[in-house]
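hi!! sorry for the late reply, been swamped w classes. u asked for the two structures so here they r. pasted raw, havent cleaned anything up. first the sequence of the first protein and right below it the tokens
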Amino acid sequence: MFPAIIGRPAQVSSLSPASGDQVRVEVEPDRVVAVEPPDAVVSIVTPAETSSIRGAFCNRVHFFTSADDARGWLDDHPDAQVLPVAEAYALGRRLAERMLTGDNRCC
């Protein structure tokens, strides 16, 4: 979501908390440019409100190499789901837009 806020591209490299394998993502403010591995997913817990973005969203967002890689984490976090990286980025952008306008409802 931060590239959308600051209007600049970013590269993310993160280790899956399940497998320890690396996930790499390249984004521009308006889109995902590249994802490696291509089947990578992002864990999401959609917050009811966004007054504490870190607690409601950031602390629960993890990259996994695939939906299968995320299965154990999802078993431990039944209120979560995983989304393909591009869908998760679109959700994050909507959340950022609402935060910037002072709208604390979720997406």
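now the second protein. again sequence first, tokens right under
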Amino acid sequence: MSLTVPADLLEQAQRGEVDDTAFIGCIASSLPYAWQVISGLIEDLHASGGELADNHTPPPDEAARGQLLRLLASDAMRGAIERHYRVRLAFQNCHRAAVFRPDATAAHAEFITARSQILNQTPELIDC
């Protein structure tokens, strides 16, 4: 299961739309490793003033890797984070997540190319 949904959030969803802040809280508590990576990248992006912040550190174990994959594979989770923090997310391999400023279109476009994906491959990542 991707998320552990509290009863009040489930009730909110049953009544209608779910607030992004509440959904992000659910993400953070359900997927703590993934949330630590993404929120840290958001902080790094704002602190640096650059176009992007990205992660090069592989997860410590398969459970952590699974959290990151579940968060980044979900359009709903990615969308909520992107809207709430006004960023764009991108992903390569099993751990290289990146956060972009919304206007960093060239940097984002380069990150998501086949060339960039191929250059990011290493033998250690073959089974990730």
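hope this helps!! also noticed smth abt the second:
Residues 28 and 90 are 18 Å apart (CA to CA).
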